[in-house]
Amino acid sequence: QYVGSFAVEDLDLQQQAGRLEEQLRALKDCPRRRPVVLRFSLQGLKVYGADGETLLMAHALRRILYSTWRHADRQFAFVARNPRSPSSTLFCHLFMGPPGEVQTLHLLLCRSFQLCYLLAHPEEQA
């Protein structure tokens, strides 16, 4: 379920991670949620409405800077630059679901990054 998006300061992501975790914690009981379908690919992540056909947002992998999941609060979130926004404008997109599902969503996004990197650098494959 999509909870919403909020602006994130374009700081060093190591510094920002702590602030981001605080914001996610504050939103753990947010009642506003919308059923969505997430689709991962080597190009990026697309979010569709519950019908699986209405595209709500699309983010190329190159625009996604950070991903996290919080088991206790059943949250999955990623930070990205929006396609037509200034490069210094970042947004965190927050989703909620069962604990195993949010971990899987985070791992799918991580795997997309890994596969994209290996395709670009075949010499590094073992």
Q: What portion of residues is helical? A: 25-40%
What number of domains? Answer: 1
Distance between the termini: 37 Å
Question: Mean pLDDT, nearest integer?
Answer: 89
Please give the radius of gyration in angstroms: 15 Å
What proportion strand?
Answer: 35-45%
CATH topology: PH-domain like
Shape descriptor reads globular
Content-based structural category: alpha+beta
The poorly predicted ranges are none
Helix count equals 2
Q: Report on the biggest sheet.
A: 4 strands, antiparallel
Write out the CATH superfamily name. Answer: Pleckstrin-homology domain (PH domain)/Phosphotyrosine-binding domain (PTB)
The SSE string, one letter per element, is EHEEEEEEH
Architecture in CATH?
A: Roll
Number of strands: 7
Strand order of the largest sheet: 1-7-6-5
Pfam family, one: PID
Protein name: SH2D5 protein
GO cellular component, one term: postsynaptic density
